[in-house]
Write a structure and sequence with these properties.
Elements lengths: L1 H6 L1 H13 L1 H9 L1 H9 L4 H29 L3 H17 L11 H24 L10 H28 L14 H4 L1 H19 L12 H14 L3 H29 L4 H29 L1 H21 L3 H27 L7 H13 L4 H13 L2 H19 L9 H6 L1
């Protein structure tokens, strides 16, 4: 056992960051705090306010990530910047503890939620760039899929703990006052504590490689990343396609819990159980994707997953029965992890290691440059029609455009796994 841990320590350390960081967005922006905000803190227009906060965060991330990627490539300082943004995001999340169930706390909640989302999403510019440092071309899909899966299973355990320890008991621990929603608010510092405890091994066990000359300016490094992106056949087209399907995922993640609560009447307990079930589904999909990715290639996995997501998203928007919604949502979860993992693997497998953070800065642009559009349209449609069901259809439209733009041809030279499969 010890020999196994020693042999795979870098890969385990890499996956532990997903395990450490994933509970924050699950508890904060999807299943607990987001529902608390839209149903209790600001029940009248909370859906729209939450949507616009996410839209502004997406714009901010798109503006800063390319430059941060170039800076970290220039001095091979990916772990340093990962630590800085992790600390900022963790503190902002913990400070949400103070948000009382009153409209007067709405601005405080939105500001620190914004900081949390921007900081923790920006972390993935540096984290994704470390993937090639802990994997080889032969196992990059498995390493990426294992990391994604560990994040989903961390969400399961953290949601279970939140439900059993904080939310479900009639008398919550630590003298928490249910009248002021302290049992719900306590999940925010809990998520930060989880992040700290499990995130430390990443910085101890993962070694970054391929230092770039410090004499190059940040702008030159960024330009070199753009030139590299242009030199890889199909990469720019893929990044544009990713803009669309990433927008769809933003809508699903930001409003999944809210949609379940407002359209199908889920209680806070039911939303958490729903979140646990969704993460089990997504985790299973992420475990499976590693094998399919290395066997058939990231591009094929990505395209197939998009087709399945379109069908399932359509069913979720159309059904009115609560149990059919459950079935559709759990099936949809199986393909969320594969899309994220296969996208990251596809890019990591075709770009030079020494420019990986710069390229993943551009990758973050493709995930965030237009991702404000999904939440913005969700908020606009909700305000216009007072219907979360109509607003959720935005995600379906973006999935369809993403598939059409992706096309049928993969990036760069044929992936080795494609050759094995043919």
């Amino acid at each position: 056992m010890l020999n196994y841990l020693k042999r795979y320590k870098p890969q385990i350390g890499y996956a532990l960051y997903d395990w450490a960081s994933s509970p924050i967005p699950a508890l904060h922006t999807t299943f607990i705090f987001a529902v608390y905000y839209t149903s209790t803190v600001s029940p009248e227009n909370g859906s729209a306010e939450w949507a616009w906060m996410n839209a502004l965060a997406a714009i901010t991330i798109a503006c800063i990530c390319p430059f941060m990627g170039a800076i970290s490539d220039r001095a091979a300082s990916r772990k340093t910047w990962l630590a800085v943004f992790s600390v900022v995001g963790g503190i902002a999340t913990a400070l949400l503890w103070w948000v009382e169930p009153d409209i007067s706390w709405s601005w405080y909640a939105l500001i620190f939620s914004f900081i949390s989302v921007v900081a923790l999403e920006s972390c993935f510019t540096f984290y994704n760039a470390l993937l090639s440092s802990v994997s080889t071309p032969a196992n990059i899909g498995k390493v990426s899929g294992f990391a994604w899966a560990s994040g989903y299973f961390a969400c399961i355990f953290s949601l279970l703990i939140s439900l059993v320890v904080f939310i479900q008991p009639e008398t919550p621990p630590f003298g928490l006052d249910t009248a002021s929603a302290e049992h719900i608010r306590a999940t925010m510092p809990f998520a930060t504590l989880w992040f700290i405890v499990f995130g430390i091994p990443t910085f101890l066990w993962v070694k970054q490689s391929h230092t770039v000359e410090k004499s190059a300016s940040v702008l030159d490094t960024l330009k070199a990343g753009v030139r590299t992106a242009k030199s890889v056949p199909g990469l720019l087209k893929f990044l544009v396609a990713r803009m669309c399907y990433a927008d769809a995922l933003v809508v699903l993640f930001a409003f999944g819990g809210i949609y379940a609560a407002r359209v199908f009447g889920f209680s806070q307990n039911e939303v958490i159980v729903f979140g646990i079930a969704m993460n089990v589904s997504a985790g299973l999909g992420s475990v499976a994707v590693g094998w399919f990715d290395d066997r058939y290639g990231s591009f094929r996995v990505l395209r197939f997953s998009l087709i399945c997501l379109i069908f399932l998203a359509f069913s979720i928007v159309m059904v009115t029965d609560k149990y059919l919604f459950w079935v559709g949502a759990l099936c949809l979860g199986l393909f969320v992890g594969p899309i994220q993992s296969a996208s990251r693997t596809l890019v990591a497998s075709v770009v030079p290691k020494h420019q990986s953070a710069s390229i993943f800065g551009l990758y973050m642009i493709s995930g965030k440059a237009t991702s404000f559009v999904g939440p913005f349209l969700y908020g606009l449609i909700f305000i216009s029609f007072k219907s979360d069901r109509a607003a959720m259809a935005v995600g379906l439209v973006f999935l369809i455009f993403g598939l059409l733009l992706l096309g049928k041809k993969s990036l760069g030279p044929s992936e080795p796994s494609h050759q094995n499969a043919s």
